[in-house]
Amino acid sequence: MAYVVTENCIKCKYQDCVEVCPVDCFYEGENFLVINPDECIDCGVCEPECPAEAIFPDSDPKAAAWAETNRDYAGKWPNITRKGEVPADADSWKGKDGKENLLSPKPGR
């Protein structure tokens, strides 16, 4: 089992979750983060740290559609171990639905 980052992270990318991860399993895209399911130890410390409420266990129905996205981009994007710069307009995107088409495939940094 692993945790999954979902649509709520798109264009928010607060990164509070990155700071608490004991195994550094987050990977950074231009406007989204993902968790590598092969590295995640299912500790759950990242979930309550996410201001956008974007992280769920892979057993949660909300995570199902995002599990493969996390796996795919974790193999393409750079690993992130420290909180970086949060997008200036992150708060304006928090809680908005229908952001899936805004996911950038570009890597972060």
What would the keywords be for this entry?
109 residues, alpha+beta, Alpha-Beta Plaits, two-stranded antiparallel ribbon, 19% helix
What's the arrangement of secondary structure elements?
Elements: E1 3-5, H1 16-20, E2 26-28, E3 33-35, E4 55-57, H2 61-64, H3 67-74, E5 79-80, H4 90-93
Antiparallel strand pairs: 1-4, 2-3, 2-5
Give an overview of the whole structure.
The chain has a single domain (3-83), classed as 2-Layer Sandwich (Alpha-Beta Plaits), CATH 3.30.70. The protein is 19% helix and 13% strand. The chain has helices spanning 16-20, 61-64, 67-74, 90-93; strands spanning 3-5, 26-28, 33-35, 55-57, 79-80. β2 (26-28) and β3 (33-35) form a beta hairpin. The relative contact order is 0.31.
The amount of beta strand, in percent, is 5-15%
Structural class designation: alpha+beta
Level of helix content? 10-25%
Write down the overall mean pLDDT: 96
Q: State the CATH class.
A: Alpha Beta
CATH topology: Alpha-Beta Plaits
How would you summarize this macromolecular structure in one to three sentences?
By secondary structure, this protein is an alpha+beta fold. Helix content is about 20%, strand content about 15%.
